[in-house]
Write a structure and sequence with these properties.
alpha+beta, Deoxyribonuclease I, Chain A, 7-stranded mixed beta sheet, 5-stranded mixed beta sheet, 8 helices, 19 strands, globular
């Protein structure tokens, strides 16, 4: 885990690439899979700094990021102006051999659109406004060997699927913070396994993550479970269950990126329109940021 301290900010209304008015509520919680800073369609260079500046420019309280290169960890504070807690899911590699973040960056600079995360590794991060207080951070590997074996038997997975599931660590990253209005929030950031049309692996990881977060939560905590779940509401039994009374989370969004909240009323789940994630005519990332606002 890497923890970076920065100059975080609270909610505002001025957007770096145009004017956008945030909901007039006390807290905005946002999630974005930044696609390693690639544009759509991908280009030779990436625009990661532009993406991080864009998603933090209107001063949200919490931003959960997925799918960014390990070398960029040291720059999150500078780009966002927020405190950052990051966890590495996949370390930089040269084929089967360990590498360094800098070597990964240099190689990927040859063509970001083609190489993407082949050498850079991959990480997730929670960005928090400076007006909030970080209390602790915890993480859980969701697809460790023991869990994969048990689920492989339960789901009757073939050998190819079992091997593919082991290729990348999937991490539930949890950060406990005190929001500017003094509410304590337990924020969990997820990037779950994608296995084509088979959503069962992501669904199993989601249930494990929700159970882990539920066990960490104290009575009265505001609980946030968010990120790139790689499951849609219709394809996940767990996602449907989380919105029912037993778990008590807010409803999911329509796609695979979600911000679920328990312990507070929230606004409707909102995904950014295409034009809001354009910078100099380029569409950033193959995912849209999603967010909710808390009264």
């Amino acid at each position: 885990m890497v923890v970076l301290r920065g100059e975080g900010r609270g909610i505002g209304e001025q957007h770096a690439h145009g004017t956008y008015t945030s909901p007039t509520l006390a807290a905005v919680i946002r999630s974005w899979n930044v696609f390693h800073g690639n544009a759509v369609p991908p280009e030779r260079r990436a625009f990661l700094a532009d993406a991080v500046r864009l998603v933090s420019a209107d001063l949200p309280d919490v931003v959960l990021l997925q799918e960014f290169p390990v070398w960029s960890l040291q720059h999150l504070r500078e780009w966002s102006g927020m405190n950052a807690v990051a966890d590495v899911a996949r370390r930089p590699m040269l084929g089967p051999f360990p590498s360094t973040a800098e070597i990964g960056r240099l190689l990927t600079d040859l063509h970001h659109g083609i190489l993407r995360s082949a050498f850079t590794g991959q990480a997730n991060a929670v960005l928090v406004t400076r007006r909030a207080r970080l209390l602790e951070s915890r993480s859980l590997m969701l697809n460790d060997a023991r869990f994969r074996r048990a689920q492989g038997r339960r789901l009757r997975l073939d050998l190819v699927t079992r091997l593919a599931w082991a290729k990348e660590r999937r991490v539930c990253q949890c950060v406990r913070i005190v929001l500017p209005d003094d509410r304590v929030a337990l924020v969990a950031n997820l990037h779950l396994t994608s296995m084509g049309s088979d959503e069962r692996l992501a669904d199993a990881e989601l249930l494990r993550a929700a159970s882990f977060v539920d066990a960490l939560a104290d009575p009265g905590d505001l609980v946030v479970l968010a990120g790139d779940f790689n499951v849609e509401p219709g394809g996940s039994a767990t996602l449907g269950a989380l919105a029912r009374e037993e778990w008590g989370f807010s409803p999911p969004g329509p796609g695979i990126d979600h911000v679920l909240v328990r312990g507070a009323d929230v606004s409707e789940h909102h995904g950014w329109p295409l034009d809001r994630r354009r910078v100099e005519g380029r569409l950033l990332s193959d995912h849209a940021p999603v967010e909710v606002a808390l009264p």
